[in-house]
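ARCHIVE CARD
SHELF: 3
SLOT: left
DATA:
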Amino acid sequence: MKIKPVQKMLSVNSIPLHQGDSQSVRSAVRPASRGRLRLAMLFLATLFLATTVGGSQADAESLKKIRIGTLQFGTVNWELDVIKRLGLAEKEGVDMEVVPLASKNAAAVALQGGAADVIVTDWFWVSRQRAEGRDYSFAPYSVIAGGLMVRSDSQISNIEDLRGKSIGVAGGPVDKSWLLLRAYSKQITNDDLLGLVEPVYGAPPLLNRLVEKGEFPAVLTFWHYQARLKAKGMKKIIDIGDVLEQLGIAPGVPIVGWVFSEKWARANEDALRGFLRASAAAKKILAESDDEWLGLESLIKPGDNATLAALRDGYREGIPRHFGIEEVTASKNLYHILSEIGGSKLVGDSKELSPGTFWTGAIE
């Protein structure tokens, strides 16, 4: 409807020149028509710009919003940074907002209070929440990895060598790797590792500094802190993958994942699936491209190339390759083993993995 005035202005040049003095008509019409033509062109340009801007706003408004709660300095931010920089979420029709949080407890509060739609945590927490009547569900983010690290000059090479020694343990008494190591010790030595060693619980950065100074000979900490120790020459004497195998658990069990309300997932399934596809695309890029890790250097702050390479390799080790019935079964077996050792502090009153813990949309 806005085009009609433009057409009317442009039609001035169609005045027949055979009526009266054609020359005078031409001289009278041309200057006016040029001005009108310029106005018409300006109008069309304005109309085009308004349509383009309006279309961009409409496209932005059509993206499905999703708020990801994550620890402010956590490793999850590396993947989220790739998603944002490469526009992977937008390609899936998702407007991803990152909600920075101060701690793991803050993440749980944010999810429960509606300040975030999705957080990253382990499925033990999800199972416990479901046992208490809450509808949270889990989609894999990372598999359990890492192991026990010792100084390069250490003579420790196995569980038996740890007898009577102090070892650093990150994450506290119910850390999953620590519980796994205790279960492994029972099977190998018939003794709970808790009775063989003196665990020194602490924050990962502090434990790294202490083991580097020789305050204790071994440390069990989170994978990215292990990677930093590896870059400084420390060695892994017990691999969590080997521990799982010894305990009869199939490899590739996810331990940390994207967690959300099942009710929210049903109402926002397109947004959730789009985000999970973006996450998978970011993982694929980080798994295959060394150059992409250079782009993360300012965020990671590795300090040197060896540390960056160790962090890259550690991240890749934790990428889930598949999540199907076999992995779900392995997770149930793992739950049974760790619930016996961790007790109610880990799982509450639930002795079995709660139905619905793993989101059916994530099971292949």
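SLOT: right
DATA:
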Amino acid sequence: MRKLLNALYTGSIWLAALFMIGVLVMVLLSMLGRMFQFYIPGTDAYAGYAMAGAGFLALAHTLKSGEHIRVTLIIDKLTGGARRGMELWSLSVAVLLAGLLAVYAWRLAWQSHEFHDISTSADGTALWIPQILMGLGTSVLLIAFLDEWVLEFQRKRSHASVETRHE
């Protein structure tokens, strides 16, 4: 199971990296278009979709790498069972919020599909297509938070990455 979860997080970050390359390509196309007097409709919109996709798809890997910003003002002062209880409570809230975010991201994509919602920019893209990236990213984030919760519950969660940054 650990290999599968790590592969999911790694795949998600690689997909995010590809979307960042997509942002670069769209920006370069837009710049070249201005320089050489040609126009490709939708480059700005596609750059935005790619940026949003990259951001959402990178969330889970960022969490699992210990790179999310944590406010540890209270939790750093706790030890033993109190700290573990606070970690589990914090992760439970994070699971709840990530779950709600995922549900509403998928709901938004579904509603955009149902209402045939399209972009108002020159590209006219069906909005449910780029919104799927938001649903995917938030779903992988939910899985990552559930993974962290289970690891904490089993006392297998590493706190070293968080603690070393404070020194």
